[in-house]
Amino acid sequence: MHEHHEDTWVNTSCNGCFSVCAIQVMNRDGKIAGSRGNPNVMGSLGKCCGKSLSRVADLYDPNRITKPMMRTNPNKGLGVDPMWKEIEWEEALAITAKKLVEVHADDPRGLVIAVFDTASMAMTQSFGKAFGTPNFAFLNATYCGGGEHSHFLHVFGTVNTEIDLEHCEHIVLWGAQSGLGAHNNPTRAARLMAEARSRGAKLVVIDPIMGSAASKADQWIPIIPGTDGALALAIVNLLLNEYGIYDKEFLQRRTNGTYLIGQDGHYLRDPATKKPLVWNNAKSCAEVFDAVPTSDAALEGSFRVGDTDYKTAFTLLKRHLLGWTAERAAKITGVPIKTIRDFALEHGQAARIGAVIEVDGKVLPLRPAAIELKRGVNAHKNSYFNCTAVTLINVVLGAMDIPGGVMGLNTQGPYGAYKVFAGLDGILETTVGGLAECIGFHTNYPPNEVTIPDSVNMKGLFPVSGYLSALPHYAMSDPAKIKLPYRPKALLAIRTNFIKSYHDPRAIADYLSKLEFIAAFARQVDEVAEFADIVFPEAHDYERYSLFPTNFPAAFQTPGPGDWYMQMNQPVVDAPKGVRNWIDVMIELADRVGILPLLNEKLNVHAGGLMAGWELEHNKKYTAEDICKRQVNGYGAAAGVKDPLGELNSVGKLTLYKKTLDESYPGYAMTGRIPLYPEHFIDVGTKVKALCDREGFDWIDPSWYNPLPEWRPCPAHEEVSDKYDLFLANGKAAILHHSNNASNAWVDDVLSTKRYTRYVLLHTTEARKRGLQDEDDVYVESKTGRVRGKLRVTECVHPKVLGTFGNGGGWARNRPIAQGKGVHSNSLIAFDWNMFDSISGQIDTCARVRIYKAED
Amino acid sequence: MRNASMVIDLDLCIGCDACTMACKIENATPREIFYSKVLEYETGRTPDVLRLNLPVMCNHCDDAPCVSSCPTKACAYDDVDAVRIDDRKCIGCQICVVACPYGAISYTEEDNYYFEDTPIPYMVKADRKKIGVSQKCDLCADRRAAGKEPACVEVCPTLCRIFGFGDGSDEKINAHLDSDRCFELLSVAGTKPKVHYLSRHKNKLVSGLG
Fold first, then answer.
1. What DSSP line would sit under A271-292, residue for residue?
2. Would the pTM count as exceeding 0.80?
3. How do residues A678-696 score in pLDDT, each as one tens digit?
4. ipTM over 0.85
5. Is residue B159 within 8 angstroms of chain A, CB to CB?
6. Which of A355, A519, A563, A611 has its CA 20 to 30 A from that of A386?
7. Within chain A, how many helices (H) and strands (E) appear?
8. Nearest-CA distance from B186 to chain A in Å?
9. Which chain B residues are within 8 Å of A14, Cβ to Cβ?
10. How many CB pairs below 8 A link A and B?
């Protein structure tokens, strides 16, 4: 029988993870029948990952909901059946709008919007601002980078980084899996990493677990979780104080290492201009930092000005680090002394300080040794200092934003989403706009105001954090404790399963069940939606437009040479009857609440906004499609493209212009200085302490504000216990994205073939000690909770660590595929007010656990 | 003689399972049946562990036991020496399943597709013809007929899979077949597999994996 099919490939974007790769999806006779990477787009290089391919199954999963639902059981809790009743859209919208009107009239700040939809953050940001609530955020900060993003804002002026894999020869992934199936632009990075390794680049992976990254590494350095800062400080100590390997010119030009510091820890300032002073070697006197030629500014030494001695910041750092010997670090980290010493020397030498490379006729520094840090370094109580210490290695070697080094994503680029410049005291400042702002990032230098918090992210108490998505759960669990001047009452949960991605589900369940109203948008009723009063069935991104065009260059576009371009997320097939785009539903709700004009006004501004001539009229009701196309047309017109939508449809990207050299490798031309010595921490610490003393906030420890990097233990490191004798660690599996796709039928099937992903990993020697065998049913227990799992006895984990992968062990009724598969390690981590970083607000994922055979 | 062959560079495979997924989709295989999958092995002691991602599939052997043992000649070579199973000739005796030293042939009598009442559109292609007959990788015969590479090759983000012809005429794979890193799985079985692997850990793997 001859079958005739109408096949159409549609250029769109994959929203299967935050990277939002450009893909092409096939519509066959009105159904999705295939997907692939878009070969025209440099972010994906014509490839897509297994996650992306599997997403078709989500569309046609019979567990997908297609009608709004209302709970009939007023009781809420873990394992409680909501007893759903299907209702009509009108009823669902009316109930939700009525509650929103009530909250709006009482105190609009009582509305919290939680979202994980990177392609459409503009809507939540704009809706929140129009409604009058500051509470719109990711709530999944166990996986996102409070410390890392804050730190990157300080040193790069942007929130994410990638190694320049085209030039790097000594690639170090530290608690990271970039280029091995994870992080930004994963398919492109996978290709570049493979090419780099093929040409002989060395890959070193520092990680408690041998995940996919370490499995490809030339050297795996297993480490005890949360001790990364201690190892990094020892490495910097070796580089500076023993091996003498550091980039003096870079430190003089791009850091505040030359600034003179007094006994009080503060900069010595010019009495007239208040600018920091440096020592001019040529003139043998102190002068304002920007008046002294780079090569004349003393990097090291003690200098007498008036009748007082001042040391350079670099001198203080160098001396401070003397205490961080390899021997000391080895005891803390579990990494042998020789490994530390050898690594430091090899990495330092690989940086080839002084080497140059010609790019586009210009001679740039080449530093082909770089370290990328991610969640393994970040997700700890000592997050900010962990990140600082690791990046210090890149900084002292000058491997920042130049060929071969680690690159900030889009520090200079179109739309001014980030614009890095020399700001107050010559220190690197940045603007945060566009999508970055929508996701909840904010600038953190100069530091923000210290106040009693007005928002659930407690911004006022974390003035140098740039990203605070870990803290809303604490604020919502006990708003009185932070003296929040209102009570969170209603929650909109959009594509987010934070009860699984945060610690201790019981703690989250406790506050969720006390909220007056929850509406959730979901394709399947996940663990958070089980607490909702109303669930709206939402469209898959193969069935909808997104706000704004995805993979906004301001956010995650890969650094280095190439074009600035935009992608688009557009429907490939119609959504099932009864299913709507959540963005359109938000517009409808805004209309019913009476804030539509304000919403339009905000949408004109946020996520890069709409170009002149393409703004939304305040009093008109638009659709997601209208707004998406207006932005494409606006930016296309500004870039001189005649038919922007046509170009997007035919090519899959809208090219704006070729990056300039300054935009490709901004490091060589940047003037903002990296705060090697964040002097402003002293005053910030004083202010935070004063406020905390006054208000009785004893759960913040202002003593962390120290301009010299240190390592302090996480609560789990200090726990004295013979009972809980292992450290918990959680790694990433390339096929999984949070708990998001754990219910995908094909992913589930593929995972059934995998040796490690759904198992509990215990080292061979530790298993032997305990009499445990491979494939045993086991319990893993901490002070917080207990989970059941299958044991994998392995050499692929640090002997003191119990390893897990992904976010498994689902329990939602409507997600039968994910139920009980794998391990929910977050159930083992304490929800405790001593678990977050006092500087960045990052939450700690360290826990002490024990393992024993399940006899039942 | 065209000797349809594949070279898989284990030094490049990151175990992302894009190939597994692409294969599953292309061939509309039912639950728990994979024509291609990535196995994981480890050898060595911490921290000098070799954790291996090992993509496995039908090896399209030159002396294929499935071909020689098939009573109905359903298992046979096509025009480029890929081993294929003809659904119409297969009687489901499963001799091939037993004969294959690689365990690369599957058989099911269950209608074990993913969603009972709502088959995914891809599954329409399968039309449930593979129930009660042996099934395995045919190096994407339909795609090859359309001038495309097998799905697992096209999708690989690290380009670790190379499809070509081992008759000496194909520059794409000639150099690899001569490489010091090149080996075959279970070569002791003597079936002359045409799926070749590359690894800098070749010696360790040949002794460890047989």
1. TTT--BEEEETTTTEEEEGGGS
2. yes
3. 999 999 999 999 999 999 9
4. yes
5. yes
6. A355
7. 27, 33
8. 20
9. none
10. 147
